[in-house]
Specification:
By secondary structure, this protein is mostly helical. The chain is built from 21 helices and no strands.
């Protein structure tokens, strides 16, 4: 009886997995059709190609199509999306974030710095290299970058320097990526606002005296009356002189640069600036780091092998008629259930469950076994009496008693 239940359970799980795969692939095709405006057959062929791409990257088909959908909706072409999808998958796996989060973060960085496709790949190398040298991850660096990339580009901070500062603050404070990213955005947007002549910060603080406060410490924001310096040069100058400032001067600088709410966090990049310089050097020499780590670490993992197996199963679904597979699975499962039901194999078990639960099931099964044993004994005794050439009156009465409860098929044999 247990074997029948196990078979039923495995068929049920296989059916659920196949059903889910069919629904997921079907949804991916629909989403991509909407995003690309291609006809459904063309999108199906595209998804089959993404299935092969998924196997090569140790990812499922739906992880690939999800990234593709986001890039298409962001206006990227098929060729551009192909390269960016790989970057998203590598950031997702190496940075331990979802493919959706990785795609969102890379798009924010790409748009913030107006990067080309190749530059996105270099940015990924930087994040992965910093991951290996600071107490953070490439995923958390990417998440923090999402909050401040556009402000950094306007303020004049290179990507490598910004990522290194984020890694330093994250390393020293161990605060969330969102908190670090918001701090960096505050720092950069305040300078951007001063640079643009907007003397009220995003937090509503007055910025009109920031330049004069910094001027008292001989920190100049401009090269000329019309030209502001890049923030990267200014922050480098302040950091290199940080230890020479008095406590009062440091407080004034923190408030001028970061504002009232974020001033306490300003101490982390200043006091850890040697770490920032070290990480900036790491970033400058990071070419090829992401793909090397991805191939040597992730692609040999159990997760990669599991995802490749899932992609192979999805390929089976795609290379067959989806609706027919779905229908066949349901029909096969129904047929098996009907067979078991008609054969009364589980009747006693289900009846027991419905009435009194597990104890009743056990008693029902035990009773059924006893009855079967008794029935077989009666059948055997009846056969023994019939084999006797001369049946006495007593034996005939016994035969009638034994055959009283036998089935029709057993009676025919007697």
């Amino acid at each position: 009886m247990t074997s029948y239940l196990l078979v039923l359970n495995e068929i049920r799980k296989a059916g659920q997995n196949a059903k889910q795969a069919i629904e997921d692939i079907n949804k991916s095709v629909t989403d991509l059709q909407i995003a690309t405006n291609m006809n459904r057959d063309s999108v199906k062929d595209l998804v089959k190609g993404y299935n092969d791409y998924g196997k090569a990257l140790g990812s499922t088909t739906t992880q690939i199509t999800s990234a593709a959908d986001d890039y298409f909706r962001a206006g990227k072409t098929l060729n551009e999306a192909q390269s960016l999808i790989k970057d998203s998958i590598m950031l997702s796996k190496l940075g331990q974030i979802s493919s959706g989060e990785a795609t969102e973060d890379l798009l924010a960085v790409m748009n913030g710095y107006a990067m080309s496709i190749d530059e996105v790949g270099k940015a990924l190398d930087t994040m992965v290299a910093l991951d290996m040298k600071a107490a953070t991850s490439s995923g958390k660096i990417a998440t923090a970058l999402k909050y401040c990339a556009s402000s950094a580009d306007v303020a004049g901070v290179s990507f490598d320097k910004l990522a290194s500062m984020i890694a330093t603050v994250k390393d020293k404070t161990q605060q969330s990526a969102e908190t670090v990213g918001t701090f960096m955005n505050t720092l950069l947007s305040r300078y951007r606002d001063v640079k643009l002549g907007q003397f009220t910060s995003d937090d509503g603080e007055d910025l009109s005296d920031v330049e004069s406060i910094l001027g008292t410490l001989d920190i100049k924001l401009r090269d000329s009356r019309e030209e502001f310096r890049n923030f990267e040069d200014i922050i480098n100058e302040v950091a290199m002189s940080w230890k020479s400032y008095s406590f009062v001067q440091q407080v004034a600088l923190a408030k001028a640069f970061a504002g009232v709410r974020q001033q306490n966090r300003f101490y982390a990049p200043m006091e850890g600036y040697n770490k920032t310089l070290e990480l900036t050097e790491v970033a400058a020499n990071s070419a090829g780091t992401a793909i090397e780590k991805f191939e040597n670490s992730y692609m040999n993992s159990l997760e990669a092998k599991k995802n490749t197996l899932q992609a192979s199963f999805e390929s089976l679904v795609m290379n067959s008629d989806m609706e027919q597979i779905y229908s066949s699975i349901m029909s096969a499962t129904t047929a098996l259930v009907d067979f078991i039901n008609q054969a009364n194999l589980l009747k006693g078990v289900f009846a027991g469950i419905a009435v009194t639960g597990g104890i009743k099931v056990f008693l029902t099964i035990r009773t059924a076994i006893n009855e079967a044993y008794i029935g077989l004994n009666r059948f055997q005794n009846a056969l023994n009496i019939v084999k006797t050439t001369n049946i006495s009156s007593e034996s005939f009465k016994q035969l009638l008693s034994l055959t009283n409860s036998l089935s029709m098929s057993q009676m025919r044999l007697v």
